[in-house]
Amino acid sequence: MIRRRAPVSVVGALLLVLASHGPLSAQFTTASLNGIVVDPSGAAVPAAKVSVRNTGTGFELTTATEGTGLYVFPRLPVGSYTLRIEKEGFSTYVQEGIVLTVNQSATQNVSLRVGEITESVTVTSDVDLVTTGTSTVGQLVDARRVVDLPLNGRRVQSLLYLGPGTVDVDQVRSLGYGGVYPGEQLANVNGTGLGQVNYQLDGAGHNDTYLNLNLPFPNPDSIQEFNLQADNLSAQYGNAAGGIVNIATKSGTNEIHGSVFEFLRNGALNARNFFAPTHDSLKRNQFGGSIGGPIKKDQLFYFGTFQGTRIRTAPEGQIAFVPTEAQRRGDFSSLDVQLVDPLNGQPFPNNQIPDSRLSPVAKNLLSGIPLPNGPGQQLTYTGRSGEQNENQFMIKGDYNAGRNQINGRYFFSDFDAPGSFSAENLLAASSDIHGVRVQNVAVNHTFTARSTLLINTWFGWNQQRGGHFP
Q1: d(C-alpha 270, C-alpha 279), whole Å
Q2: Which residue from 317, 410, 398, 322 is spatially nearest to 367, judged by alpha carbons?
Q3: Cys-Cys link to 196, which of 49, 242, 358, 391 (CB 3.0-4.6 A)?
Q4: Amino acid 1: pLDDT
Q5: Positions in the chain whose pLDDT score sits under 50
Q6: Residue 127: its pLDDT value, please?
Q7: What integer pLDDT is reported at residue 4 of this predicted model?
Q8: What is the structure's pLDDT at 250?
Q9: How remote is the C-alpha of 396 from its chain's centroid?
Q10: Which pLDDT does position 48 carry in this prediction?
């Protein structure tokens, strides 16, 4: 099946958030932070200056507590933050080590001490934040798990099954779907059935529009984290009853960071399996790298990554039973069964079929079938060679300036299995000629009009084309 299609999903939305309405949950790939500021007696502290600063990018937001002592930051990029609270008559409070994760709605309440504002109370240990702004139940897969846990083929999407209530039901793929990108997985979350998981990549839909399965995730070096929300989902989500997977990709910071990798699997480097006649023939190379850093400190950042995958395999020891050289000339005298002429019902003398009665089409096809090389009619040969090529890259930019946050990301992944054909051995010809290309764009803009008004706009574009070729 060939998918000559451009099923494009474009999503645009405008979100107005009134922070004075109380704690609100994060949107897609961000987090939120709220809390109540009190004095030593437990009374609320209004009009206190509250600021948060991202330690990696220098991004900073400031607000003021309300009459109830409440402060709210409804939309913050994931990462590590420092919280600072100032109020005349109290010592300045500084909290370091606040780590916000995707879709987290965290609460950090603070009790100020009486003192001079020039004095400061600094807490440097990491904080275990309490989530009180939402009842949604989810499973976070952070960057450490993405890097440390073993991944077959470096496919991050398989870590989805770390979440409770998730079941891999990939065996139903035998239904014969065509044009499926390798790595699309059939996940059942909390018994809701197939196709009931909605995948979002940086706020843009990341689903196969025919089957409602996931499109390929970016490589592990570019994933910041992802979160599976499976219970008590917010009304902002749709398209799935089982769960929502929000994937956040990495961004550049004020320091340049990068990586270079090469993963190799080659049977020549392994011991032969005791029961195998030859070594494993699979050869897989995955190579690439990533880099991110500042274009303008504290304001403009870049991140880019590339991964190439090359797979080659040719299984040894394939066995087939083929006609002998005599049988190809019509001599079946070696058979114990008497052959009968289908035209007149009479037996062929000595099981000899005249050459004039042999099909020229069959004779031509047999020229591409090797002769037996084992006992009887047994042919042992090298199986169809498997060749797979994949190229994947992603570029991302982030801009933070005053009350504006803008980030844009483009993701490209192309898979090609060209197949193989040999006129000398038709049995080793490949019928799996397969090619799929995926492209995805996400753009997000957040404007903080004032401490109680946030305007968020996001845009997503997704395209997939390709399929199986006969």
Answers
A1: 8
A2: 322
A3: 242
A4: 47
A5: 1-2, 4-13, 17-21, 174-176
A6: 61
A7: 46
A8: 94
A9: 16
A10: 95
Give me the pLDDT at residue 179, please.
66
- The one-letter code for the residue type at 204 is A
Q: Which residue has the tokens 């930051």?
A: 73
Single-letter amino acid, residue 374: G
> What type of residue sits at position 66?
E
The H or E element containing residue 79 is: strand 79-86
Alpha carbon distance 322, 319 (integer Å): 10
* 455: nearest Cα among 11, 13, 103, 61: 13
Could you tell me which of 248, 212, 237 has the C-alpha nearest to residue 464? 212
Amino acid in the structure at residue 136: T
For Cα atoms 36, 53, 32, give the angle at the middle one, nearest 5 degrees. Answer: 50
| DSSP-derived secondary structure letter, 47 | T
What is the C-alpha to C-alpha distance for residues 433 and 257, in angstroms, rounded to an integer?
A: 39
Q: Cβ distance 271 to 313 under 8 Å? A: no
Q: 20-55 burial, b if ≥16 CB within 10 A, otherwise e?
A: eeebbbbbbbbbbbbbbbbbeeeeebeebbbbbbbb
Q: Are strands 197-201 and 79-86 parallel, antiparallel or unpaired?
A: unpaired
CB-CB contact of 110 with 93 (8 Å): yes
Decide: 383 and 316 in contact? Cβ < 8 Å. Answer: yes
What is the CA 306 to chain-centroid distance, rounded?
14
Distance CA 153, CA 263 (A): 9
Q: Shortest CA distance to 59 belongs to which of 44, 73, 39?
A: 73
| Strands 30-38, 110-111: pairing kind | parallel
pLDDT of amino acid 414:
95
CA dist list (Å): 219 to 98, 243, 333, 394, 415: 27, 22, 61, 9, 14
Alpha helix segments (H runs only) across 37-180: 143-148
Contacts of 269 (CB under 8 A, 6+ apart): none
**pLDDT for the residue numbered 28:** 62
Taking every pair of Cα atoms in the chain, the longest distance, rounded to a whole number of angstroms, is 116
